[in-house]
Amino acid sequence: xxxxxxxxxxxxxxxxxxxxxxxxxxxxxxxxxxxxxxxxxxxxxxxxxxxxxxxxxxxxxxxxxxxxxxxxxxxxxxxxxxxxxxxxxxxxxxxxxxxxxxxxxxxxxxxxxxxxxxxxxxxxxxxxxxxxxxxxxxxxxxxxxxxxxxxxxxxxxxxxxxxxxxxxxxxxxxxxxxxxxxxxxxxxxxxxxxxxxxxxxxxxxxxxxxxxxxxxxxxxxxxxxxxxxxxxxxxxxxxxxxxxxxxxxxxxxxxxxxxxxxx
Length: 263
Hints:
alpha+beta; Deoxyribonuclease I, Chain A; 6-stranded mixed β-sheet; 6 helices; 12 strands; globular
């Protein structure tokens, strides 16, 4: 009888150990994600605000998360469409819209599509002195299938010729997105600054330029400048693939498709 109880306890302990090991191993797996960045160019005007046209492009690259800049929402310009939700339905993804300001009887801002449900989402706006217009930055926190958590943020910095305006925006982003944040984080979008600009010098104090040395992103018909980025925090992301893809019929910006990992 004593032997049977001891044997049962051993088996129970072994089973518990295997469950714990499986959990710890799963949680410790590398964070691996494919992200895509798309500047919509005036809400999608070049593609006549057609959801399927953009969805087909996204479907081709099958990203886990897509971030958008210059996304219209129920504007007279786009025919009062909820273009983001249309794409979400077509792609089977979860949408989040971040309004920057009211425009054409609707909204103008940034947006995110995610393959996976997110448990936190937020949008903040910034218009420091000298900025041409209000800008939004939005983020979601999501859990990947291997239980790793990640924060994905999208931004569209001011088009002003003054780097100090964009630096002020980045300072606001840093203080809100990074403070008390323990998640690996990606900041993606149109920074309206070339890699040698003071804007990007400031950005690199905190963020890793994951696509450093990659191709120019504007214009889509003849790219001469790199102003669209995937930035990572902390500076321990691993670039597995990074592609700049150009669709002049969809935007004046080339799009970014990046496969990246975090240990």
